[in-house]
Design goal:
There is one protein chain. Helices cover 78% and strands 0% of the residues. By secondary structure, it is an all-alpha fold. Among the domains are: 102 residues, Tetratricopeptide repeat domain (Serine Threonine Protein Phosphatase 5, Tetratricopeptide repeat); 70 residues, Alpha Horseshoe (Serine Threonine Protein Phosphatase 5, Tetratricopeptide repeat), CATH 1.25.40; 71 residues, Alpha Horseshoe (Serine Threonine Protein Phosphatase 5, Tetratricopeptide repeat), CATH 1.25.40. The longest helix is centred in the last third of the chain and has 28 residues. The radius of gyration is 35 Å and the shape is elongated. The termini are far apart.
């Protein structure tokens, strides 16, 4: 019986070792190294973690650290389990013990920084990152992590310092460039936002994310000429971007380039993008470029969708005016006025008087023509 039990234990140890668990005991002669009891327990802890049974996993990891207090892996595993369970203070205590027994300092500080961030302890998080940087210098991964932490904590100057240190090591580092643009956007410095986006596009001229953000910045500044340039580059790099075509159409419309605008709006529709917010400019573009039927179709579609109604009733009124249907034009403009949605309601109010004058003139000309 004892012999059978011994064979079972040996089989369990060999199974744990076969799963990739490192053995702490040296091999004897040329034979295999056998897993220790601590190794077997740590393997079980990993299985419990995978099953999300953190309570049992922590109890077993505690047994490992009690039985083998010098085992670094035990303390690291205990710290990890506690962090998964949300016990961040206890996790850091375990990591401190691991450090005392020779754990990798960078790994411990990285994990402690994570815990402190989860606890909302800005000061301790910052201390961990500063210690990491003091030990590793301009390590890009750590600098990016630190910059991200400072961005989340609104430590703008520290974040900028971290990300610019990355660029001193790797001047084309795209994550750092994007992060610098984000920092400047969050603190509202539009000039610096544009600077970092332009900096990034110098090294990554076809980056869709940078082009989209640079175009958006130009639109926000109502710099439509430059916005068109960036947006044309964007849709060339990302031909399936309805948002890119949408903004391109808006920028072209603001510049008075109505044929170019409607071409962009058509792309939005073809790519499955929503026309909400575009019905007004699209209908106006069609009307002013000599396509009244398309203009009326878009106006009616937008009215049915309940979008930009005052604008569309005004455009529809102008289409009726072009047709000489002044009574219908007046009715359409009155609907725009009743919506009280300026500037289009005010525009429509003025147009009603104009339609009445045009209607009167048309009657007079008809009478004169009949008398002749």
């Amino acid at each position: 019986m004892r012999k059978q039990f011994s064979m079972v234990i040996t089989a369990v140890c060999l199974l744990a070792f076969a799963r990739g668990v490192e053995a702490n005991q040296p091999s004897t002669g040329n034979g295999p190294a056998f897993a220790t009891s601590a190794d077997v327990k740590l393997s079980t802890v990993r299985e419990l973690i995978a099953a999300k049974d953190f309570t049992t996993a922590e109890k077993l990891a505690n047994q490992v650290t009690t039985g083998s207090p010098d085992l670094v892996d035990g303390w690291m595993m205990l710290g990890y389990v506690r962090a998964l369970a949300g016990e961040y203070t206890g996790s850091n205590t375990a990591y401190d013990q691991a450090l005392q027994h020779g754990a990798d300092r960078r790994e411990v500080l990285t994990r402690k920084a994570y815990n402190c961030r989860r606890m909302g302890d800005v000061a301790q998080s910052r201390a961990c990152y500063e210690a990491l940087l003091n030990a590793s210098g301009n390590d890009i991964d750590i600098l990016l992590q630190y910059g991200a932490f400072e961005t989340g904590a609104a430590g703008w100057d520290n974040a900028v310092d971290a990300f610019t240190r990355v660029l001193k090591v790797d001047l084309e580092n795209l994550p750092a460039i994007r992060a610098l643009a984000t920092v400047e956007q969050k603190r509202g410095d539009r000039a610096q936002l544009a600077y970092w986006l332009d900096y990034g596009l110098t090294y990554h001229p076809d980056d869709v994310g940078l082009l989209r953000r640079r175009a958006r910045a130009s639109l926000d500044e109502q710099d439509y000429t430059h916005a068109v340039g960036y947006l044309e580059r964007l849709v060339a790099a990302d031909t399936e971007s309805p948002g890119g075509y949408r903004n391109l159409g808006i920028a072209q419309y603001q510049l008075g380039h109505k044929r170019e605008a409607v071409a962009a709006f058509i792309h939005v529709h073809e790519l499955g993008g929503k026309l909400a917010g575009l019905y007004g400019p699209m209908a106006d573009c069609y009307r002013t470029t000599g396509k009244p039927a398309e203009a009326m179709r878009i106006a009616e579609e937008g009215i049915a969708a309940g979008n930009q109604l005052a604008w569309l009733y005004s455009v529809r009124g102008k289409i009726y005016e072009d047709r000489g249907a002044y009574d219908k034009a007046i009715m359409s403009f009155r609907k725009a006025v009743n919506l009280k949605d300026d500037p289009w309601s005010s525009y429509a109010r003025k147009q009603i008087g104009r339609q009445q004058q045009l209607k009167k003139r048309a009657r007079m000309m008809a009478v004169q023509g009949a008398s002749q």
